[in-house]
Backbone:
């Protein structure tokens, strides 16, 4: 999965983002959801499949951006 951004009105929903980007549910990580990044600019982020990230029109969304797995560093315990 990759991250992309989209500009939406305040209090936007994941469904609104999917309609704006013309993405079906199977291309979106619905568990990740829609994350508000910058409220002043109405910028949101969401995780989508790699193929979907490359299909999104540049004027509709930004990215794609990598989404590396975050793991602990060093010995545990």
Residues:
């Amino acid at each position: 999965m990759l991250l992309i951004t989209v500009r939406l009105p305040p209090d936007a929903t994941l469904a609104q983002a999917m309609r704006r980007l013309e993405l079906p549910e199977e291309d979106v990580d619905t568990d990740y959801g829609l994350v508000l990044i910058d409220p002043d600019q109405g910028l949101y982020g969401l995780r989508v499949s790699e193929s979907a990230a490359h299909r999104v029109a540049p004027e509709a969304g930004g990215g794609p951006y990598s989404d590396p797995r975050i793991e602990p560093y060093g010995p545990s315990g």
Summary: The chain is about 20% helix and 25% strand. The radius of gyration is 14 Å.
